[in-house]
Amino acid sequence: MKPVLASLALLLAACGTTPPIQFFSLGPQAAGEVAPVATAGPSLVVGPVGVPAAIDRLHMVRLVDGVRVEVADGHRWAAPLKTEMARRIASDIARLRGYGRVVAWPQATQAEPDLSLPIDVQRFDAEGFERVTLEAVWTLRKGGKDLVSRRFIGSEAVAAPTYAALAAAHGRLIDALARDIAAALP
Fold it and tell me: Which of 79, 106, 163, 164 is most buried, judging by how many CB atoms fall within 10 Å of its CB?
C-alpha cells in the first residue's frame, strides 16, 4: 500500500509543476534605410515615457472580450515596457535621422540635452491575439519650450496566436511611432 501512495504522491507533485516563465522583448527592429551617423548635431533624450497603470508591469497583458483583462503570469517583458519603449525609439531615431547623440531616459548620460522627447502613452492594448493598438502623445522640447507636439494612433495585426507574435506586434507599433517622431525632427 505504501508504494502505491508514494507513487500517487509523486504523480500529483509532477502535475503541480508550473511551466517556466518566458521573457519577451519588443522583437527585432525594423530594417530599412540607415542615415549616416552624424558626429555633430543636437543631443536628444527620449523620455520619460509614461504608460497606463494597467500595463505598467512586467507581466504581459491582453484584453479579452473587450472588457476583461488577462495578466499572463508565465509571459513577461524582459524589462519594464516604458524603459524598453524609450530605448527602442532612441535607437530608431538615431538610425533613421543619423543623430549621433540620442539616448533613452532614465539612463541618459547627458545632463543638459539640446532636445528632450517625453512621451505619454494613453493606450497600448493587446486585443486578444488579434490586434495591438497604440495611442500616444509626444512632445519635442528645447530649453523647456515645446517645438512640436503630436498624437500618434496606430494598430498592428498579430501574426499568430502566440505571445512571441504579440510582442513582435508591440515592437512594430513602437517602430511606427519612432518613424512618426523622426519625420518631425529638425
Answer: 163
